[in-house]
């Protein structure tokens, strides 16, 4: 079946198909492809040779529209019926749990796990390092970080435990980046285990699938199927069902080894898969950014090196008897050798197995010693641990090393000159071994079987073999190249090895094995002078310890600008560079000093730290800061004073915080606390933001500092403290926060309200009641605000509020108290109001009476529960008129038809009283309100009577507005005609009331009145915001038909009208709609979307123009041009950029161009374009 037909089937299964899909399906069904799809009864559909179709128990004699529709339904029914629970993933999940329950073994290359085998199973594994990840910053973030420091901390420099980090960003896809052996794959395995365990225990949840890209053959779907069948061979999922489950979000994909994809074709296929299934949670890993690309994944997390404390803890747990001796030998080399879990484990193995517990002098020596344990028959005493039993090999052990070198060399050759392979077919491996062992007596299959049984190879499938780790493959490739080196010409060495990125790691390992100085310097100088200067500098630092001085001297002897030389010396990461870099700390140029500090920071020795400490005393604040960060990366506490100083500097605060965290977590909170107490305004704001962000990172003792900040004179600091306390959410935090209910800042009070639950006001009740009884209007308003926003009330508070609503002299306070009683949805309020209405109402004020206030609140609450209370008030012959009219109005507003008969009787009673008594005004009001209430309840034949009242200009404005509102609910021609006539009423409120109702019906004749209302002002001349808001809402309901009239108002002399017209246009058109910009000739927001801005630069400017801009741009703008250049740079421009580093004096060039060169080299997988051209035929 073709991919196109498969896609159509998938879209049909998901209900996302089009008419074109159905036509294509019908056409396919006419041919062999369509018939073959269903001939085995798939989807319960069978198509015979004569095109007769059997779908379940239905038969069609031809492929017509009805048959196709039935097929569509059958596909959808089949897809819908396949849920994970029905398919049954339990066996698969159990297999995952059984296979990966000892996840820590995936840090190692053999079954040897040292002392871990003796530990109790429930004890924490020494391999549970507590690995951390840190977000990889995007260059564009640097421009926004100073303007938005919270974003910088959250998005740019977030540091998280690895599992927490990858889970946090999985939904939007995340790329986990790390050195070989840093624990990326093991992190995926741990997440695989946790997710599978959870799904088994809960009987639901996402199904985790590990997609190992090193095993790529044809597609991602094939890899998913292979992994599923590996763990449950009986699991039967066709591709259509699988893709349906994918789109429905049932799977979590853990995609390991982006850098191990075998070809560009595979990379393109994977990128398409990621786009097609963008809603499927996916976590990707890659060795380093650039190798294999990033597939456009925006969120990247970088594995952090093990800290010295983590390394020491592992060594003490793994080789407890010899731990101190091992640590003593390693000294300051521990950081160099043990930065990843895999290397640390290998280090422990080598130390344990070496006869005199001696440590190698470099990384290559560790690999050499580690692999020799398998090759040297003299270490037979260690075979019990390492080779899973004392079993006699089939072949001679002396053949193993050359065999592994040969296989590694063959695997370094891929589809193209720049590609390599991580696996090889067994037949090809046997052919290669036959070639190099043509005169040996041992069959090559025995040699290969021994390597698979006892050494560092493993089967990846029945016919594919691979090294147990890519690092081991690279080591044997290095051994292979070491053997070839004396016979390689300079041109061959440059073209076939130095210039290809795939050989960089093996060459680096090889140099550490080269004993001859001349040979080592030859490699370094060829790389540095003829291939790439950065590569040469790196290789200089990989030479043997006793050769590094000569190698680094060759870097220092280069005739290049000092700024470039500093970068090159830093790239060596060698102790030998310190003597050249140290004097530069005395430079008068800040850029030279800062670059020197960064270069020294790359040198992983105590001597480097001692040199860097000198810069901590520099007179330049920025230099002290940069030096402190580098010293902190070594965990040295001498950086803390400078970092504490940096905490008080806005632009350095968050990076200083991370640096302090790297030295000693226990010092972070106290130092932030000191900043909060003693620093200036901006530093205090940063400190409280940091304390907030650290809440989720396991820090304690934060609450006392949040309480201090809650009383800061700065409202922004208080807000941040309140926000943090609300997020803590425990009883202690909330009790602290509750004390801020009287704060002057509304946002602080909002956080208080957000944090208090309905029953949490008990401990504030006395304070609130006292506040409501005070003479301070501000205090009263704060108390009312708390009650309103928390929706929490007691009977005592309700009574106090009612008293304020009745007696307070301040209209705004009275109104707020009434509003609180209206909004709070609690029967307590209803009970208080009911009781008040039965009490004496003889006490009145100039504002109102207590009964009037109570009934007004019931009117606006519009609750059915209030109906008996309202009827009782209405029947009370001693009740005043306003209470009765409000009660009638409320009965109509509530909308319960059960009161209709009561209201009809009330209407008759009012008519009778009008005729029999002289109290015309009172009963006329009761009559009118009852008539309107009945109209709102849908009683027929009342429209004419209501229209007469409306059109009687002697009626009050409030009654006439009520008439319009009522007519709006009566669907008769007479009612609508009255509403249309009201558009010309002399009173704006009447006109607007009619217009608002007609607008809901789409009546465009309401537009002039609505536009008129945009300029309405209240009695003191300010904008009547409620009127203009209603008018804008109605105009939006009318939609695009208003735009022409609104455009005219953009030139109005009234600024209020102009503002509201613009707002209406914006809401009608939408923020991003082009029509909005057609109607509003206003300048676009300066906060352009970054990606759009970069695209614009790329499209509008040439490479040369962007380079010139890069040279002279200021620090706020330079990143834009660098980012744009990264988008368009091509391999043939590497030489030009390298030349630029030799000729330019621009700081921007030395800051950004090395990264540009590295980007394109990673993309094309070679260093030098001209050399690479010599490979191409």
Describe this structure in words.
The chain is mainly alpha-helical. Among the domains are: 3-81, no CATH class; 90-304, 3-Layer(aba) Sandwich (Rossmann fold); 306-391, no CATH class; 393-513, no CATH class; 519-528 and 537-601, no CATH class; 1005-1080, Leucine-rich Repeat Variant, CATH 1.25.10; 1091-1173, no CATH class. It is built from 66 helices and 13 strands. The strands form three sheets. Strands 5-4-10-6-9-8-7 form a seven-stranded mixed sheet. The chain has a three-stranded antiparallel sheet with strand order 1-2-3. A hairpin with a 4-residue loop joins strand 12 (457-459) and strand 13. Helix 14 (308-318) runs antiparallel to helix 15, helix 52 (943-951) runs antiparallel to helix 53 (957-967) and helix 53 (957-967) runs parallel beside helix 55 (988-1000). The longest helix has 19 residues, at 184-202. The two termini are 38 Å apart.
């Amino acid at each position: 079946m073709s991919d196109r037909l498969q896609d159509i089937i998938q879209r049909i299964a998901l209900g996302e198909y089009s008419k074109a899909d159905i036509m294509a399906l019908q056409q396919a069904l006419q041919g062999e492809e369509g018939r073959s799809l269903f001939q085995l009864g798939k989807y319960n559909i069978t198509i015979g040779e004569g095109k007769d179709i059997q779908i379940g128990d239905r038969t069609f004699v031809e492929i017509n529209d009805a048959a196709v529709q039935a097929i569509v339904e059958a596909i959808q029914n089949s897809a819908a019926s396949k849920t994970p629970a029905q398919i049954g993933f339990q066996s698969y999940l159990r297999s995952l749990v059984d296979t990966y329950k000892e996840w820590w073994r995936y840090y190692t290359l053999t079954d040897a796990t040292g002392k871990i085998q003796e530990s109790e199973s429930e004890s924490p594994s020494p391999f549970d390092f507590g690995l951390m990840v840190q977000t990889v910053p995007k260059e564009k973030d640097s421009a926004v970080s100073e303007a938005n420091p919270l974003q910088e901390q959250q998005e740019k420099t977030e540091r998280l435990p690895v599992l927490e980090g990858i889970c946090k960003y999985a939904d939007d896809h995340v790329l986990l980046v790390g050195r070989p052996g840093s624990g990326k794959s093991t992190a995926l395995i741990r997440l695989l285990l946790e997710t599978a365990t959870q799904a088994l225990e809960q009987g639901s949840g996402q199904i985790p699938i590990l997609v190992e890209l090193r095993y790529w053959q044809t597609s991602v779907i094939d890899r998913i199927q292979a992994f599923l069948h590996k763990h449950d061979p009986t699991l039967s999922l066709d591709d259509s069902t699988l893709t349906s489950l994918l789109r429905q979000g049932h799977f979590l994909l853990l995609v390991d080894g982006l850098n191990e994809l075998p070809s560009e074709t595979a990379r393109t296929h994977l990128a398409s898969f990621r786009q097609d299934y963008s809603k499927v949670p996916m976590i990707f890993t890659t060795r380093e950014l650039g190798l294999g690309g990033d597939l456009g994944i925006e969120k990247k997390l970088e594995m952090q090196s093990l800290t010295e404390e983590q390394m020491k803890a592992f060594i003490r747990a793994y080789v407890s008897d010899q731990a101190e001796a091992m640590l003593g030998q390693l000294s300051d080399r521990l950081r160099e050798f043990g930065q990843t879990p895999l290397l640390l484990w290998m280090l422990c193995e080598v130390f344990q197995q070496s006869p005199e517990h001696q440590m190698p002098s470099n990384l290559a020596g560790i690999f050499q010693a580690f692999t020799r344990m398998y090759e040297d028959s003299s270490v037979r005493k260690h075979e019990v641990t390492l080779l899973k039993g004392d079993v006699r090999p089939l072949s001679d052990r002396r053949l193993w090393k050359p065999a592994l070198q040969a296989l590694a060399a063959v695997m370094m050759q891929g589809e193209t000159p720049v590609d390599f392979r991580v696996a090889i077919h067994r037949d090809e491996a046997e052919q290669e071994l036959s070639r190099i062992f043509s005169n040996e007596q041992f069959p090559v299959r025995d040699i290969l079987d021994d390597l698979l049984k006892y050494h560092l190879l493993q089967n990846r499938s029945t016919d594919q073999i691979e090294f147990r780790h890519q690092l081991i493959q690279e080591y044997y490739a290095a051994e292979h190249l070491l053997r070839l080196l004396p016979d390689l010409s300079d041109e061959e060495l440059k073209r076939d090895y130095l210039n290809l990125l795939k050989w960089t790691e093996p060459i680096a390992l090889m140099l550490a094995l080269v004993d001859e100085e001349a040979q080592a310097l030859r490699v370094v100088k060829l790389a540095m002078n003829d291939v790439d200067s950065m590569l040469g500098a790196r290789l200089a630092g990989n030479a043997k310890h006793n050769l590094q001085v000569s190698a680094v001297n060759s870097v220092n002897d280069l005739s290049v600008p000092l700024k470039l030389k500093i970068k090159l010396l830093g790239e060596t990461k060698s102790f030998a560079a310190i003597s050249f870099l140290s004097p530069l700390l005395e430079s008068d140029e800040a850029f030279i000093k800062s670059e020197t500090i960064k270069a020294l920071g790359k040198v992983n020795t105590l001597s480097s730290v001692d040199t860097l400490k000198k810069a901590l005393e520099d007179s330049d604040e920025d230099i002290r800061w940069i030096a402190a960060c580098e010293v902190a990366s070594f965990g040295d506490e001498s950086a803390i004073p400078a970092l504490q100083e940096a905490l008080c500097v806005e632009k350095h605060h968050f990076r200083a915080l991370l640096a302090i965290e790297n030295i000693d977590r226990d010092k972070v909170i106290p130092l932030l606390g000191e900043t909060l107490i003693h620093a200036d305004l901006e530093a205090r704001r940063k400190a409280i933001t940091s304390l907030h962000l650290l809440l989720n990172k396991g820090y304690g003792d934060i609450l006392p500092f949040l309480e201090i900040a809650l009383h800061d004179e700065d409202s922004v600091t208080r807000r941040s403290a309140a926000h943090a306390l609300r997020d803590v959410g425990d009883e202690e935090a909330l009790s602290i926060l509750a004390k801020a209910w009287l704060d002057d800042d509304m946002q602080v009070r909002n956080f208080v309200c957000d944090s208090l639950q309905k029953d949490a006001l008990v401990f504030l009740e006395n304070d609130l009641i006292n506040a409501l009884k005070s003479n301070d209007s501000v205090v009263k308003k704060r108390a009312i605000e708390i009650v309103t926003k928390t929706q929490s009330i007691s009977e005592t508070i309700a009574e106090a509020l009612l008293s304020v609503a009745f007696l307070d002299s301040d209209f705004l306070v009275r109104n707020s108290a009434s509003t609180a009683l209206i909004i709070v949805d609690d029967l307590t309020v209803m009970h208080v109001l009911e009781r008040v209405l039965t009490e004496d109402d003889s006490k009145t004020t100039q504002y109102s009476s207590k009964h009037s206030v109570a009934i007004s609140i019931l009117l606006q609450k519009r609750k059915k529960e209030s109906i008996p209370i309202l009827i009782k008030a209405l029947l009370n012959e001693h009740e005043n008129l306003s209470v009765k009219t409000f009660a009638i109005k409320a009965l109509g507003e509530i909308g319960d038809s059960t009161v209709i008969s009561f209201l009809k009787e009330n209407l008759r009673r009012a008519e009778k009283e009008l005729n029999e008594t002289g109290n015309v005004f009172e009963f006329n009001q009761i009559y009118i309100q009852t008539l309107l209430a009945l109209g709102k309840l849908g009683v027929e034949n009342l429209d004419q009577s209501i229209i007469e009242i409306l059109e009687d200009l002697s009626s009050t404005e409030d009654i006439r507005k009520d008439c319009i509102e009522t007519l709006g609910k009566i669907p008769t021609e007479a009612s609508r005609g009255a509403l249309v006539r009201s558009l010309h009423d002399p009173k704006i409120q009447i006109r607007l009331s009619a217009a608002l109702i007609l607008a809901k019906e789409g009546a465009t004749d309401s537009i002039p009145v609505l536009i008129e209302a945009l300029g309405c002002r209240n009695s003191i001349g300010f904008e009547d915001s409620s009127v203009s808001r209603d008018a804008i809402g109605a105009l939006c309901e009318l939609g695009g038909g208003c735009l022409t009239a609104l455009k005219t108002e953009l030139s109005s002399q009234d600024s209020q009208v102009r503002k509201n017209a613009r707002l209406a246009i914006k809401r009608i058109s939408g923020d991003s709609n082009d029509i909005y910009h057609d109607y509003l000739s206003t300048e676009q927001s300066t906060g352009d979307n970054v990606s759009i801005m970069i695209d614009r630069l790329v499209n509008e400017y040439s490479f040369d123009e962007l380079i010139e801009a890069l040279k002279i741009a200021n620090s706020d703008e330079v990143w834009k041009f660098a980012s744009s250049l990264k988008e368009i740079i091509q391999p043939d421009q590497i030489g030009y950029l390298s030349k630029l580093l030799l000729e330019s004096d621009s700081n921007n060039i030395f800051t950004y161009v090395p990264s540009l060169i590295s980007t394109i080299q990673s993309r094309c997988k070679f260093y030098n374009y001209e050399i690479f051209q010599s490979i191409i035929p």
